[in-house]
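Pilot study result, target chain (161 residues):
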Amino acid sequence: MMAVVAAATAIFTLSSCDSLNDERIPYAEVRLTFTTEGVWNIYGVAGATSSRRYIKSEHIPTDFPYTALDQTGWGGLLVVCDIMGDPQVYDLSCPVEMRRDVRIYIPADEVHARCPQCESTYEVFTNYGVPLSGPAARNGYALKRYHVVYGGPAEYLVITR
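Predicted structure:
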């Protein structure tokens, strides 16, 4: 019975991805550079289901070496390590609220991101920002995703639009 429920959930999730809207967050520049593997090891995310927030205007994390070129999107960046160990990046702004100051967070002892205002929840570790509950799920509003690329000799990892 559990296999049937899991299969039905997977089919529903995959078929509903076409109707998801991840473009509700207003355009904002995104560029966050980790210059070396050492900087990534200190400030990045490692291990399945780990996460970190980056908000340049508020100096979060406080000792991150932001440069003049770094930009952290509309509401900030949520960087997570997915279950395969790969970094994934989302805008912190809730796509329902569409405000810079209403930011999703991952509650302690939970594995889904949540909006403090509308209480929508999102899958960030396995299903790329898909809404799970609340107004976001009813309207098909997914989290805004950004790209992670491995840089050249002077850049270990870069997050871009």
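One observation from the pilot: Residues 1-17 have pLDDT under 50 and may be disordered. A full batch analysis is planned for the follow-on phase.
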